[in-house]
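subagent[fold] <- orchestrator: predict structure for attached chain, return tokens only, no commentary.
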Amino acid sequence: MPSAMDAVRGAASDHDRVLLAGLHPLKHALRFGAAVMAVVLREGVDLRRATTVLAPDLPDLLDVEPVEVAPAVFETLTTRPPPDGIVAVAERPTVDASEVLRGSAGPVIVLEEPRHLGNIGACVRVAAAAGASGLLVTGTSDPWHPVAVRGGAGLQFALPVARTDAVPSTPRALVAVDPGGAVLDPTSLPLDAVLVFGTERDGVRPATRDRADHVVRLPMQPEVSSLNLATAVAVVLYALRGLEQRPRWSVR
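subagent[fold] -> orchestrator:
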């Protein structure tokens, strides 16, 4: 059994574990049932005091004893030590793309070959907030990479999240969000759609557009070429959810 410090140091390269850098990823991991294996605190950090306002339930959810280390040691544990002096390691859940597509009645987000891990994390955060069924990533980027987990505040544990080789085949309606599509009309789209977002530079792949049941775009002011990926995901999800006009899907 590795020590808490060894577990933290090895988590970034271990596909069975997740590095939680900071209080917020640890808080969400625990709230959504993650198996937290180790917690390391920078000397002088009082976890209970740190959670009094933001997460008073966290100490009662944690069933491992935090280990306190000197500041100089804490700085060596990760490439970007969190300012709040809290790092942890959790078991990584096993998620299959087919499991994501069998989820609840909400939409599934597919990010097609995203380039920036921080953007992936921000999309996870939006998808969790809006009650999506799950999120899939094609290409080589890992949505459980420490940078993506930090960007998602650990909300990868709130819904099924996985990498997949390609946009999956599914009975659900496939909606490509692309600058060449029709202006988004959320009332014309099914609530359980698979929503595919491409890169900010290139949009979705031509093969994906050809497969799509709907190709839609977000209206923007002239001369504005694109939105940040997470912003686009947020706009489409909340438009589709239709907070006041349409029945809501089940929210966890």
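orchestrator: received. Logging for downstream: The longest helix spans residues 117-130. Strands lie at 17-21, 36-42, 67-69, 86-91, 108-111, 134-138, 161-164, 174-183, 194-197, 214-217.
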